[in-house]
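Anyone? Bumping this.
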Amino acid sequence: MKAGRRTFFKRGLAAGGVAALATQHPKMLAAQGGLDGKPLEVPDWTKMLGPGVTAEPYGVPSEFEKNVVRRNVPWLTVSEQASVSFTPLQDLDGIITPSGLCFERHHGGTPTIDPEQHRLVIHGLVRQPLVFTMADLVRFPSVSRICFVECPANGGMEWRGAQMAGLQFSHGMVHCCEWTGVKLSTLLDEVGLVPQAKWLLAEGADAAAMTRSLPIDKALDDVIVAYSQNGERIRPEQGYPLRLVVPGWEGNVHIKWLRRIKLGERPWQHREETSKYTDLMADGKARQFTFVQEANSVITAPCPEKPLKDKGFYEIRGLAWSGHGKVARVDVSVDGGRNWQSAALQEPILSKCLTRFRLPWRWEGGPAFLQSRVIDETGYVQPTIAELRKARGVNSVYHKNSIHTWRVNVDGTLDNVQIL
Amino acid sequence: MFKFCSVAAAALLVGWSATAQQAPFGIGHKITDAQIAPWNIDIRGDDGAGLPPGRGTVAAGEKLYVQQCASCHGEFGEGNGRWPELMGGRGTLTHDDPRKTIGSYWPWAPTVFDYVRRTMPFAAPQSLSDDETYSIVAYLLHLNDLLPADASLDAKALAAVRMPNRDGFIVGDPRPDVRAVPCMKDCKKGEIEILSDLAKSLGVTPNQRPKD
């Protein structure tokens, strides 16, 4: 709703028309008051009542934040139903992604699912196939966990070179939310696995009826059948009313709109685990079932969308994460990797979760090359793009997690570059 | 053993004198295979398990394909504009611009049936009959020189098709395949060598100003 602005417009017009409005707009007052020797202004919003508690039964961001939105890359996909939108990481603080800003990736659009009619079936190599309603699922012992979900194609446009002039598009296929649901192991206990059950197939209720095979060890470890995201029921585009959350593993296996789990002896070799989500190496062979999102990091401020204004103090801020566990250390370089300093890590530092890092910095107005390098608790060190290319070539599409470089220009703008 | 222990532990937790065979929480509803059948559409790629009865032909598939598929995928599977191409590309997987099609990349033929039946046509998924799906799959395999023009296709014949890239996949994750060393001081000598800095001038980044 635009109640504030509309009210202001009405009053502005009533007070003397458009000319008066132009000189009294709140934005203009805010831009001048108290600066350059001018006195502070008492703005309009201090001199009138705002909307009451019933104006926004479900709150929305300030109208001045309308630039903070997901965006897509029209040339990347041929249809908006089988496409991706990107998280605006450049505008976010902390580690929790607001539900409405989480990147979207779906293959047949977002279905509109009535939770009363939704069902989850678990069958196959089980002792007793069962069907669950949403009401059934909510009755089970619940668990909450904060973890990232990252599309394995995050950064995948840049295997051959820097291409996207912005953080939102270079790294925006990741989000981090608190998920609540029932552990998949609890449901598998309920149906009773038979010993031959070594893999499962998870299937969505969307127009793509998305399927992925998952090994049983992971299913019994930390997978959640989630119905809530950041405290409320999952957003439609994130899988309402039910999705799989597979901590640390590539986003495609976090099956949204989950309707069926079938237990079997081996993977199903479906389209999304053969034709797609396989990593083509330089020798023409493709890696299959590369589930884990290896450690990755990126500086989120400054970035191309948030350039430097004046010389002086800045806090370099960024995000680091690892599908193998906790972030142990993040190093930051401002000279293109010649020298590194370890950044401060903001608590909480959680396993398979975004972690915020910070390093104080003074920009003296010269060119600089900003980089971050994460080391996770397994000792894995984020590689350079040259190291990744040497190991895998440039046709992998997926799992590009190399050290990212922002070049700071003397005018304070930043560019996405790749350096040796 | 693990199964027995976890069920027993859960039963203790909720204070039941349950045997290992009983469901720990007793939540959910028993369901039969017949009830599940409308959703039980998965087909296993490597042996065709789950393929339904029925039959199709390359000839019938060509007619269906032209009506149902060609507007996106092209008359001969060549892809219309940027919609996916479905044929060709063999021998290109090591090239600069690899073409990953059914014929060049997909390792298992029954997977094509599974995918077409569950997702296609794009705007009307799960609208094809099993016979229609067999026919369309037969035509797609024909376009990739994997079935002759007079061929028919059923479950057994489809599972028997050997895809050219059957052995093109490395199963099992070989990562970490890069073991970087975290140098801290004087890690590089000389000027920074830029590999790529065209992101801004390429002009492929969407406008990030708000839509009004």
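Late reply, but here is one note on the structure posted above: Confidence is low (pLDDT under 50) at residues 1-26 of chain A.
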